[in-house]
Specification:
Layout (H helix, E strand, L loop, with lengths): L1 E4 L3 H10 L9 H8 L4 E9 L2 E12 L6 E5 L4 E2 L4 H18 L1 E6 L9 H9 L3 E3 L12 E6 L4 H7 L2 H12 L3 E3 L4 H18 L6 H10 L6 E8 L2 E11 L2 E9 L8 H15 L4 E6 L11 H8 L4 E4 L3 E5 L2 H25 L4 H15 L8
Parallel strand pairs: 4-6, 12-13
Antiparallel strand pairs: 1-2, 2-3, 3-4, 3-5, 6-15, 7-15, 8-13, 8-14, 9-10, 10-11, 11-12
């Protein structure tokens, strides 16, 4: 076996797309998307007499501590994790690469369902990997819990296995006159982003800049690796989704909807159209992506779980995140900094949940600033 640095993009993608656990977040193009956001993509392939046995897209990020960096292989590496010889070889090569880039650890979160790969979890721990538990919701880098749908069956069979309410809402959207446009242009991306901003304001989460979505279009949509779907109703856009496609798999990545006309159920119609499109592209699996692992009905995210479950998909838990420290001292310093940051954020969130208090504090602070000579507000 030998290691290949920066393998040809076509060969790299062909191996990832053809692997049972290959993922678009390990594609050559995803590395270029992340380069736009400040990461440096590093690509490796393990070759055995001319045949690839493993690949890894490793994203490098510089840290604000003495020129150090971290490595992250999103949904990777792409390898048969039960092939211990190849996995050991690739891990050793990652260590060598880390020394030259001053990386303090490598984070991985492979596309491996926990119930099938419990033995892999045990093996990784014997090789120095440390399992990271970040809770049941969306605290991790990638969702630990998802819904996945086998779409090798006919459309009629897929509809039949859905919950009755889901089938009803798909047909309701059609009866109400919701039209799905699956032939969107880059001009439609602007309308989608406006809906996304409306959604983030309503549901209180952050969204990347419009430039980022333009980059997704240029690097993925233009190559047939992603597609935008928009729902029209009474002459206006009311919802939109963005799906990723790679190999025989499709992922629902982004969704947005207007505050108005939600009763005509555009999100159900969009999901159904994306499933049919994925089938037409030869996909075998449709991933509805993240949900919370806390399945109690009182959970604020339970509605998202119920929506995705309605499509007859399988609730899937992955083995989660693992860190491989290369420098123990620096690694634990980083973990401590990360923990402090998380606690600070949790404290801010707790303050925001106190009714009326943040508003009163902010108003008092503003009055004080205005009354203070040379204050930051006056400057």
């Amino acid at each position: 076996m030998r290691i290949i640095h920066n393998p040809p993009p076509r060969d790299f993608n062909a191996f990832v797309a053809g692997s049972p656990k290959g993922h678009i977040l390990q594609s050559h193009e995803w590395g270029e998307v992340k380069r736009f956001t400040g990461w440096e993509p590093l690509r490796l392939a393990v070759s055995d007499r001319g045949t690839y046995r493993a690949t890894a897209l490793i994203l490098k990020r510089r840290l604000p501590i003495f020129g150090r960096s971290l490595f992250y292989a999103p949904r990777g590496p792409v390898i048969d994790f039960r092939d211990k010889t190849t996995l050991d070889f690739l891990t050793d090569e990652a260590r060598k690469l880390a020394r030259s880039h001053r990386a303090i650890f490598l984070k991985i979160d492979p596309d491996l369902p926990a119930k099938e790969f419990a033995d892999v979890t045990k093996f990784l721990k014997t090789r120095g990997f440390r399992k990271i538990d970040k809770g049941l919701s969306f605290e991790g880098v990638q969702p630990r819990f998802v819904f996945r749908l086998d779409i090798t069956r006919s459309p009629e069979e897929l509809l039949k296995q859905m919950e009755g309410k889901t089938r009803y809402n798909i047909r309701l959207a059609e009866r109400k006159g919701v039209v799905i446009n699956d032939n969107c242009t880059k001009e439609d991306l602007k309308a989608f982003y406006l809906l996304l901003q409306e959604t983030t304001k309503r549901d209180k989460f952050l969204v990347r800049s419009y430039d980022y979505f333009e980059k997704l279009w240029d690097l993925l949509v233009s190559k047939g690796m992603a597609k935008l779907f928009m729902a029209h109703y009474q002459g206006e856009f009311i919802a939109g989704t963005l799906a990723f496609l790679f190999g025989d798999k499709c992922w629902y990545i982004y969704g947005a909807s207007a505050n108005q006309h939600r009763g005509v159920m555009p999100n159900y119609a969009l999901q159904w159209r994306m499933i049919l499109w994925a089938q037409s592209q030869g996909c075998r699996m449709y991933d509805l992506r993240g949900v919370s692992g806390d399945l109690h009905p009182a959970n604020p995210l339970y509605g998202l779980y119920r929506f995705k479950k309605g499509f007859g998909a399988e609730f899937t838990e992955f083995i989660g995140e693992f860190d491989l420290p290369f420098s123990t001292g620096w690694y634990w310093l980083w973990v401590g900094m990360e923990t402090m940051q998380a606690r600070f954020y949790e404290g801010k969130q707790a303050i925001r949940r106190l009714p009326g208090l943040p508003v009163r504090l902010l108003s008092a602070a503003k009055r004080r600033l205005k009354a203070t000579p040379g204050s930051a507000q006056q400057k």
